[in-house]
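Lecture notes, unit on protein representations.

Consider one protein chain, 379 amino acids long.
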Amino acid sequence: MDTTCGKKLLIIGVFTAIPWSLVNAGDYQSENSVVVREPILLAGVIPKDSAEQYELTFWESIKDSEVASDYEAYLKTYPNGRFASLARARIERLRTAAPKAQTPPQRVSPSPTPAPLAKEKTQPAPVTPPPLEKSSNSNTSVNEIKDCPACPAMIVLPQGEFMMGSNASDPTEKPAHHVSINKAFAIGKYEVTVEQWNVCADAGACPRIAPEINAGKNMPMRDVSWDDAQQYVKWLNSVSRKPYRLPTEAEWEYAIRAGTTTRYWWGEQMRTGNANCKDCGEPWHQEAPANVGSFSPNPFKLYDMNGSVWEWVSDCWHNSYKGAPSNDLSWDDESCRVRVIRGGSWREGATYMPSSTRFKYDAGVRHSQNGFRVARDVQ
């Protein structure tokens, strides 16, 4: 076993078709009676930045999902992938049980068992702080603005400098490099919520996406593609007459770090109450993220940068930061279709919560763990 690199995976999943007599309770039977079993684990080594590991990471993030569109997204990205048969079986099972599976537990009357849900449903809406607040870690003042009634609340961040990325282990985060944010910009205080998205949908400018999972108005809007986010930004520009856009990856990491240089913005170790992620503290529920603002903000007074939903940024995906710009501009390529997502989601654990975490996704594919927050230039 190679122990020199902590970022390698020692399992490979494969499938077997087995006789009906050998079916176990955890197996799935398709309409043609072919049984698809959970992957058999074989020894092997897969580098973290390989195509195989990206597929395994994708599957790991959805393998317990009760949303059929997650498995459809997997099949769109990996039509002949190692989990394709299991994905099709899951879709078939979920569609057969649609009336039951399409009703997430926390969107009906309060569940009698999970305490986090009761706490989440009864807590008041996040309190808006005074317009001007001092960042405890960065010696900078941040100002909150709101351009129109339907517009997201925005935090204006000052220009500055920081070290982007990490040399710790993940090859996609290397090399750590100095970046200058050359001008002030505003970024969403929260992720775009279901309620905010629905105003755009009501206006006919955005698609009505997955209402069965996007039911709570104060929850982060999710199951949106990068292309969907662009439609929202275009509509927001028209109603506000302001230059809204997705943040660049450099702006996003500058925002999450908020003047800090540690693994997380609060320090080197996971601490409860700061991130909406698995085993990271309450409120948490496997089926859906918490309402925006349920956890502590970072020093820039930004909420839910860690966990909640993965957030789209404007940049094209690159496998490392080699050749990355040293400024706040978006790193784009011609005909780019794979874009960057940042921050992790509520379904991942603490290892996905560091400020440097990044991943990729097809710009046209929706996933129930993907959302976004907006940014805009300030004059």
